[in-house]
Structures are given as structure tokens and as C-alpha cells.
Specification:
The protein is α+β, with helices and mostly antiparallel strands. It contains 26 helices and 29 strands.
């Protein structure tokens, strides 16, 4: 793309800000309040391309359960349902996954730079090939789903608000585009680390910085806001919102439950904007009887259950990519793509992308830095033609552990620690991904020499990676933590141990567990490493430290704090504020950079405090406590200090963003509590932008014992009755009952739509 396009305005403007400069956006008001009955009335019901009538049951939260006589009818109805609930969101995902941002954002700010990177990567590189090679039953399911989406879009006379605001047309969907959205939801977490570290490679202390990053081994802990290139920040935010970066998932077998059968619980962690990044639905047809969370536009249950088994999972954060220096590759091995770019409100342009046998040349993108003489190619497992749709449809159909494991052998990305439970009381865990057979020696740099590509000659699958079935302690759990050791390195950047240790502490000795117990654990706000740092701060405070009245108040709050980030906690405010002041004062320049890029557990800083001579702690501790006391005076509880903005992502648009704001509510939890609510480490009020945003629990003793909740609502139609109706439920730790027996559904789901051929 012509580089000048990205410099027509400040690089700090987002895509949403660009939209806000359109007169159409200024004049396009969101729809008014819409009732559930009005929403259901727009569903097409007559003269549909069906073999038999299909019944869709709806509850008061507009959660659908589809009952169909044939699989193809079920898939078609599922496509109708996804389009009805989330068509506007699906269109955004389609354009992001295909790097078509300029079509909606125009030439403003970092849009062109972000689009250039995404076009070079080409998320959909193998989508058509995967579709062509699918088993016949998978292709038939996908084709029918897409037909349902297209029928809804073509026939509805009430398109979502996104169409008007973004200037969208009724563009028919193609099956391969669904697969490309799947690739968007599966991008490598390593890329986010690279984006933040690449600009530091010219520093003289770069080897030390890289070693520190590998030593810390985390890319998710709370840290200060990273002041880096704005376009890279926007790209990172975009990928974080779209991809499955976090989660908790755990299951206990029948020896530890009150029913004598297994119970599973999962809560994915993603961006917290509206609409939610999951849609909740159920399906019953000859081959499927499932209920759970689906990515809008992708026709399988990602987190949920069928009549025999249940599944959840957490992103493994495995190393699914390498950056290779291909400067020595001969010219005849490099091919070139010229990609047209449609630009809203401006002249169209183009992007030139170059490809090598080792992947696309990422360093051709303006925002991706490389040293002089380097040519950097991206080697990514997502560029291999793996068929996750078939794998997950097989999971949705699986009846036992063997079927579950076999289904996941073809699952390459996003890398997942899958958690399993079944109706016979068993639990298990599968490391599901495809990885190159790398050396166990850690890489010396982000950029690998070309010889490192030989590791990709052998691809390891879940057959060769760790798994567990009915472990002796009676439970399995995962929280993006470092997985069990394998013959190859699985990855280098994982979450800390806070969440996994908390699950192990609670579940290890537990007996007679119930659904309520699992719900209580999902909403737990205790952070072990914060307590360790608090204890170190209090115990190491020198007697000679001079504390003012504010510091004394904060010290008292710290000493009485129970380590929980509950709404009424003053100790949480005192701790977070004191930590925000103290930690940077203890770090060397290299440690400061490592902290800002990825952070570390509070336990690491507790050890640092323990090892610091007392005379060096008096002044920084006094300053930290004094600031904490001042903050407490203005924000006496965690609920005052820490909030959640309930809003559509369009709220970022200048001038008109207020139209898309729903509420700002006090919010419990913190960066590494089980109720994950990530936020910057700060001395003043802060907001969560990433964390727990959906929950699932199933008791496998009862087909009807399934519970879900979304942070937001199931309907993506702005200002509908079900757009944000689950916020209060989520905040109270409550959930929605979603049974699977049709007779129970017919009794509890009070609305019904019958689709006629």
C-alpha cells in the first residue's frame, strides 16, 4: 500500500476513530430499544430450503436450542441463528480476518499499517485447500451453515446497525471465509511478545533483555502501559480481542463430587467489549446433541457438552511460529503477491507481499522492525492446511475418552490444553496442537537463523504430547500455565502459577463438590502471589522508616488484607497502589523493560523485596505506602478503584462514542485471580479490559445440569433486550440454566420459532 496513506492523520487514531470522521457515522444513530418478541419476529420462517420443519426454542435471554430431523437442516438453522444474533459482529470478523480494514476504516491513522501486516501474513492462505479436502460430512455441514447465514442476510429487511455505520453491503458468504475466521481466532500469542520486543533489539543490552524475557516466561502479568508504536499497539489489541488468549478450565471426577459423577467448569478470558466474543446455542439432530459456546460464524461448540462428554480448555501459549532470517535465500525462491486494497473515502491502493519457502516476509511491513541486512519470514503452523472444523465436529460427536483424543489429533491451532469429563465419571486432559520438533535449547534471539527451519521437517501432534486420564488426585486443571514436560519445547511464554495453584489448593482436598462449589471457585478473587508480596513489604519495612499519616493508614489496610480482590476490599486498593510505586523503584533498566513488556508474578517481586537490604527499602516503601494512603482516601474500596465499562467497541469512536456506552460498574478480581480482571498497574482508578467474560459448568450426572453466562448478552443487536442483560448475573456470579432434554427445553424455553420448508 502506498505508505502515504498511513500518514494522513495521527498514527494514534484507531479504526474506530477513523469511522467517527465519516458524516454517515455522525448521522447514523444506533437502533432504539428492541424487545425480545420484536427480535424473534424478524426470523425468517417460511419457504426455507429445508427437508423437514425445524423447531428453535428460545429462553428469555434469547438463547436458542435447535431441534432438527436432519443434520443439514440443523446446520442451516444454526446459520440462521448465528446471523440473527451476530451478523454485524460476523461481518467485522470477516473483514479483520481477511485484512480488509481500509474498506471500513479508510486511510486514517494506523489502519493501513495494520492491514499491511495482516495481508502479508494472509491468515486464509490455506482456507480454500482445507475446504476442498474436508470429509464429505464436514463440507455438507459447513455448506448448510453458510447457506443459512446467506439466506438470513439476503432476506432480512432489518440489517444490523454495523452495516450502516461501516458502509457494508450484503456480500454473500463463502465457506472458506468461515475457516479464515477460525485462523483469526487462532493467531500465535508469540506474535504479541515479538511486537513488543522487536524494537528493543538495537539496544546494547538486548541479549540481557531477551534472556530476562525467557527467564520470566510470562507475557500476561499485570504491567504498566507499554509506550510503543501506536500501530503495533492497535494490532496487538485487535489480535487480543479476536483470539483466545486466556482461560481457566477444570474438571473433577466422580470420587470428589456429591453426585458421584464428573463436573466440569470453564471460563474463557478475552476482551470485555460488547457484543461478547461467544454466542450460546444448542443443537439436536441425528448426529449432534450439543450445547455450549461458539465463536460467532463458526459452526461448532468450542466450550460445552454433548450427551456423553463435556470439554473446555485454555490457550496453551505454545510456540507455533518462528521468525527466520531468510536474507540468504536466493531470489528465485521468492515469489510476489500484489494485493488490491479498497479504501473507504479515498483512492484505492495495493500491498506487495513476498513469500519464501519459509513463510511470508514479515519485515516488508513498515511497522515490523528488522536490523540492517535482515529479511524476516514468518514460519507459522497456521499456514499448514489443518482442519480444525472437522476435529471439533468430531469432538462434538465423541462418546468417550478414546473418541475425544482421536478427534483432536488433527487439531493444530489455536494450541489448547483441552479439559475433558464424561458421563461415566472420568476426567482427562489433552495437549492439542501441532509443533515443530525443535531443540530443547532455548533460542538465542527472537530471530532464528535459517538453519532452525530444519526443525519444521518433523511436526509433532497431540499423539506425542502430554495427556492425562483420571489422575490420582481426582481432578485436572489448566490456566495458561506451563504444561507438563515434553520431548520438545512446547513454548516459552506462559501465565504465572497463581491461578493454577489456587485451583489445585481448593480442589486437592475437596470432597462432595457440587455445581455451586464450582461456581464459587470460578468467581474466587484470592491472589496468592499478592499476599506473598504484601507479607514481604510488611515484614521488611525497616523500623527506621518514616511514615506519614497516609502511609500509616495504608500499612494498617495491608496488614488486615485477606488477599482477596472483593468489591468492598480496601486492602486490595492499598496493595495495588503500593506495588505500582514500589516495584519500578527496585528494578534495573533491563528488569524494568522486562517488566513493562511482560511482567512477572508478584511472587518474583516478593523475593526481590526479601533480598533487598533494609536500608535500601526504607525510602521506597515509605513512598509507596504514602501514595497508597492517599489513593485510599479517594477510593476506599476495590469497587471504587476498579471498574468495568460495559460498552460496544464503537464507544471508542470520537464524537459519537457515548451512544454505545451502556454502564460503568464496580468489578471484582484482578490480573491473576481466578475471576480474572486484567488491568494496568496504576496508582489511580483503573479499568479491566480483558479477563473472564463467559462461564460454563456441567454436572455429567444429569443431561439437563448445564449452566452458562456471558459478560453482556447473547444478542448482538445493539440496544435489544438481550444485548447486555447478563451483566448483572455475571457480576453476581449467577448463571443461566440451559438443559438438553427436549422435553425440559420445551417447558423452560418459553418462545418457539418453527421453520418451514
Amino acid at each position: 500500500m502506498r505508505k502515504s496513506l498511513s500518514r494522513l492523520a495521527s498514527r494514534g487514531l484507531t479504526v474506530a476513530a477513523a469511522i467517527g470522521l465519516s458524516s454517515c457515522a455522525l448521522l447514523s444513530s444506533p437502533p432504539g430499544e428492541t424487545t425480545l418478541q420484536d427480535r424473534l419476529a424478524v426470523m425468517p420462517t417460511q419457504n426455507l430450503p429445508l427437508e423437514q420443519p425445524v423447531t428453535i426454542y428460545w429462553n428469555a435471554h434469547q438463547v436458542p436450542f435447535i431441534e432438527a430431523t436432519t443434520d443439514q437442516d440443523a446446520a442451516f438453522a444454526l446459520g440462521l441463528v448465528h446471523a440473527h444474533l451476530r451478523l454485524g459482529q460476523m461481518e467485522l470478523l470477516r473483514r479483520v480476518s481477511q485484512a480488509r480494514l481500509s474498506e471500513i476504516g479508510g486511510p486514517i491513522g494506523p489502519v493501513g499499517d495494520i492491514e499491511e501486516v495482516l495481508k502479508i501474513i494472509d491468515l486464509g492462505r490455506t482456507s480454500k485447500q482445507v475446504y476442498a479436502n474436508m470429509p464429505a460430512d464436514t463440507r455438507a455441514w459447513l455448506d448448510s451453515f453458510v447457506a443459512g447465514v446467506n439466506h438470513y442476510q439476503r432476506t432480512t429487511d432489518r440489517l444490523p446497525h454495523e452495516y450502516t455505520l461501516l458502509g457494508l453491503d450484503r456480500e454473500p458468504w463463502q465457506p472458506h471465509e468461515i475457516l479464515t475466521i477460525g485462523r483469526l481466532a487462532s493467531v500465535d500469542v508469540s506474535w504479541l511478545v515479538w511486537f513488543r520486543l522487536m524494537a528493543l533489539r538495537d539496544r546494547p543490552d538486548w541479549p540481557e533483555l531477551w534472556a530476562r524475557a525467557l527467564e520470566q516466561g510470562t507475557a500476561s502479568a499485570t504491567s504498566f502501559a507499554w509506550q510503543d508504536d501506536k500501530a503495533i499497539n492497535r494490532l496487538a489489541e485487535l489480535l487480543t480481542l479476536a483470539a483466545k488468549w486466556g482461560s481457566n478450565s477444570f474438571a473433577v471426577n466422580g470420587t470428589k463430587t456429591a453426585t458421584g459423577n464428573a463436573i466440569i467448569a470453564s471460563d474463557p478470558h478475552l476482551g470485555v467489549g460488547l457484543p461478547n466474543l461467544w454466542v450460546l446455542a444448542g443443537v439436536k439432530s441425528p448426529s449432534y446433541h450439543t450445547v455450549g459456546l461458539m465463536v460467532p460464524g463458526i459452526p461448532f461448540v468450542a466450550v460445552g457438552r454433548n450427551q456423553d462428554i463435556a470439554w473446555g480448555g485454555t490457550n496453551m501459549r505454545s510456540a507455533s511460529s518462528d521468525l527466520l532470517d531468510v536474507s540468504s535465500v536466493s531470489v528465485d525462491q521468492i515469489t510476489q503477491r500484489e494485493i488490491d486494497v479498497d479504501v473507504r473515502w479515498w483512492f484505492d491502493g495495493s500491498v506487495t507481499a513476498r513469500d519464501t519457502p519459509y513463510g511470508p516476509i514479515l519485515s516488508d511491513a513498515e511497522i515490523f522492525p528488522a536490523r540492517d541486512g535482515e529479511v524476516l519470514a514468518l514460519k507459522w503452523i497456521g499456514h499448514y492446511p489443518s482442519d480444525e472444523l472437522t476435529s471439533m465436529l468430531r469432538v462434538n460427536q465423541a462418546a468417550d475418552w478414546e473418541g475425544f483424543r482421536a478427534a483432536l489429533e488433527g487439531f493444530a491451532i489455536s494450541p489448547q490444553n483441552f479439559i475433558y469429563a464424561d458421563a461415566n465419571g472420568n476426567v482427562g486432559q489433552v495437549t492439542a496442537t501441532h509443533l515443530p520438533a525443535r531443540s530443547t535449547t532455548p533460542p538465542e534471539d527472537i530471530v532464528q537463523p535459517l538453519e532452525a527451519a530444519s526443525a519444521w521437517d518433523t511436526i509433532v501432534t497431540s499423539r506425542d504430547l502430554p495427556s492425562a486420564f483420571n489422575p490420582e488426585d481426582g481432578f485436572v486443571a489448566s490456566a495458561n500455565n506451563k504444561p507438563a514436560d515434553a520431548a520438545i519445547p512446547i513454548g516459552y511464554f506462559f501465565s504465572g502459577d497463581d491461578r493454577i495453584l489456587r485451583m489445585r489448593d481448593v480442589l486437592g482436598d475437596a470432597e462432595n463438590l457440587t455445581v455451586d462449589d464450582m461456581r464459587e471457585l470460578q468467581t474466587d478473587t484470592f491472589m496468592r502471589s499478592a499476599v506473598l508480596l504484601r507479607d514481604a513489604m510488611v515484614s521488611k519495612l525497616p523500623a527506621t522508616a518514616i511514615l506519614d499519616a497516609d502511609a500509616q493508614k495504608a500499612l494498617e489496610a495491608l496488614r488486615s488484607w485477606n488477599g482477596r480482590y472483593d468489591l468492598d476490599s480496601g486492602g486490595a486498593v492499598a496493595f495495588e497502589t503500593a506495588a505500582a510505586v514500589l516495584i519500578p523503584s527496585l528494578l534495573s533498566p533491563a528488569e524494568q523493560v522486562a517488566f513493562e513488556v511482560g511482567g512477572a508474578e508478584y511472587a518474583d517481586y516478593a523475593l526481590m523485596v526479601e533480598q533487598t537490604p533494609p536500608d535500601q527499602l526504607a525510602e521506597p516503601l515509605a513512598a509507596a505506602l504514602s501514595q497508597a494512603g492517599k489513593t485510599l482516601a479517594d477510593h476506599p474500596t476495590w469497587g471504587h478503584f476498579h471498574t468495568l465499562k460495559v460498552q460496544h467497541n464503537f464507544a471508542a469512536i470520537p464524537l459519537i462514542g457515548d451512544r454505545y456506552k451502556v454502564a460503568e460498574v464496580p468489578w471484582p478480581g484482578s490480573g491473576e485471580t481466578l475471576w480474572k480482571a486484567d488491568h494496568p498497574l496504576a496508582t489511580g482508578p483503573t479499568q479491566t479490559t480483558y479477563g473472564a467474560q463467559s462461564r460454563h459448568i456441567s454436572d455429567m450426572s444429569d443431561l439437563d445440569s448445564n449452566w452458562f453466562v456471558l459478560l453482556g448478552g447473547n444478542d448482538g443487536w445493539i440496544n435489544s433486550a438481550n444485548f447486555a442483560d447478563q451483566i448483572d448475573l455475571f457480576g453476581r456470579g449467577e448463571m443461566i440454566h440451559v438443559p438438553m432434554r427436549i422435553e425440559t427445553i420445551a417447558r423452560e424455553f418459553q418462545y418457539k420459532t418453527v421453520l418451514q420448508p
